[in-house]
């Protein structure tokens, strides 16, 4: 069984990857698995979402760890950390 999540990208990630897209994953996938699936595409996805890069995730508009399990229809957003001064 597969699920489909709606991806959204913000700030510098949006500039590189676009506004967002739909992503099909196996049921039971996590936020980390979604990131890995995007990295596996190579190119800009691999560069922007590489493990060494500081990237945060929000699941249905709430901060989420990479271990959070995704459900069909969820919104998953990736963005760089925000700093202020």
Please state roughly what percent of the residues sit in beta strands, choosing from under 5%, 5-15%, 15-25%, 25-35%, 35-45% or over 45%: 25-35%
Overall radius of gyration: 12 Å
As laid out across the biggest beta sheet, the strand order is 2-1-5-3-4
Q: Tell me about the largest β-sheet.
A: 5 strands, mixed
Question: What would you say the CATH architecture is?
Answer: Roll
The CATH class designation is Alpha Beta
Q: Can you say what the CATH homologous superfamily is?
A: Beta-grasp domain
Shape: globular
Count of structural domains: 1
Helix content: 10-25%
**Could you state the order of secondary-structure elements as H and E?**
EHEHHEEE
Look up the CATH topology: Ubiquitin-like (UB roll)
* Number of strand segments: 5
- Helix and strand content put the structural class at alpha+beta
- Mean pLDDT metric: 95
Count the helices. How many? 3
**Separation of the first and last Cα atoms:** 46 Å
Low-confidence stretches: none
């Amino acid at each position: 069984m597969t699920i489909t999540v709606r991806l959204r990208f913000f700030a510098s990630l949006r500039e590189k990857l676009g506004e967002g897209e739909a992503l099909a994953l196996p049921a039971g996938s996590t936020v980390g698995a979604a990131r890995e699936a995007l990295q596996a595409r190579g190119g800009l996805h691999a560069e922007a979402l590489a493990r060494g890069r500081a990237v945060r995730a929000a699941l249905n508009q709430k901060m989420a760890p990479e271990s959070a399990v995704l459900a069909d229809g969820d919104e998953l957003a990736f963005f760089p950390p925000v700093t202020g001064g």
